[in-house]
Amino acid sequence: MDTQHPSAPSRPQSGHTGKDHPHSGGLTHDNTRHTNRFTVIGNHLTQHAELTLLAIGLACHIQSLPKGARVDIKTLAVRFPEGATRIAAALRELEAHGYLRRVRERAPGGRIVTRTISCNQPGVRRSDHPPLRPPRPTPAKRHPAGKNALPAVPQPVCPAPALLHQAADLLAGLRRQDQRLLLSTCDIAHLAPGIAAWLERDVSPAVLRHALTADLPPDPLSRPAALLAHRLTARLPPPPPFRAPAPPPPVRHPFQTCDGCDRPFRSPAPGRCRDCRSDLPEAAGARLA
């Protein structure tokens, strides 16, 4: 393999004897090779020149956790003694240097949730976790019949089919505002990811349409798809600020009719109200005991 690990020797070492023992002080490694329950951490993280010690340690802890583990501020503050404020600052450090990404997603019920992605090598793209910042443009595509290539457009973090379908519908409807924005199927397929990248940054369709169609140049508009691709890239807004997900609404059970007194009371299932349950013989016996 061509990867070097300066701080991890290639064979177990149990100490230094004889002429190998250093006489000038400094660090000496007494290493044993791990065979289970270990995590590979890059020196670019453990020896990072700009991260604080807390951020480095927190990144190592997060990288050692299994998929699906909770790494929100509240959970980490319970696990470690540093407190929520210092942990939140360390998470922001890791996010700024690319070791962490927090992505807002819409859950099936419509609620916005935050997904945390740990990156053990910032800058190396994984197909299942594409980066949020900066947006990665698509390669320029050429139309049939020898037309010039369209400019690249930003890419969404999570290209869900529903989001791309909404983006395509928005592009197809631009001709209602200006007939010169009549796009071909190939144009829409190329531009739709750029529209989706805006929509997932909490930009409303109305605001997006205005950004694409306001102050269009006068006739002739020879390449409308190229103009839209340029505006999608040049005017791309930043991601929305991080907001903690809202707590779930309190559960309100339906009204039930009490089997003992016929009074209405809220409960997930039919039965007796609280007063009637307290009058039952077994409840009275429990109080006497």
Structure description:
This protein is mainly alpha-helical. Among the domains are: 38-133, Arc Repressor Mutant, subunit A (Orthogonal Bundle); 144-234, no CATH class. It is 33% helix and 7% strand. It has ten helices and four strands; from the N terminus they run H-H-H-H-E-E-H-H-H-H-E-E-H-H. It has helices spanning 43-46, 53-64, 73-79, 84-96, 161-172, 185-199, 205-213, 224-234, 274-278, 281-288, and strands spanning 100-106, 112-118, 255-257, 264-266. A two-stranded antiparallel ribbon has the order 1-2. Helix 3 packs across helix 4 (84-96), helix 5 crosses helix 6 and helix 6 (185-199) packs parallel to helix 8 (224-234). The longest helix is centred in the middle third of the chain and has 15 residues, at 185-199. The radius of gyration is 29 Å and the shape is flat.
Q: Which CATH architecture of the domain at 38-133 would you pick?
A: Orthogonal Bundle
State the CATH topology of the domain at 38-133: Arc Repressor Mutant, subunit A
Series of secondary-structure elements, N-terminal to C-terminal: HHHHEEHHHHEEHH
The largest beta-sheet arranges its strands as 1-2
Largest sheet: 2 strands, antiparallel
Please write the CATH class name of the domain at 38-133.
Mainly Alpha
Low-confidence stretches: 9-18, 127-135
Structural class per helix/strand content? Answer: mainly alpha
- Overall shape: it is flat
Give the helix tally: 10
Strand content: 5-15%
Mean pLDDT: 80
| Gyration radius, rounded | 29 Å
Distance between the termini: 73 Å
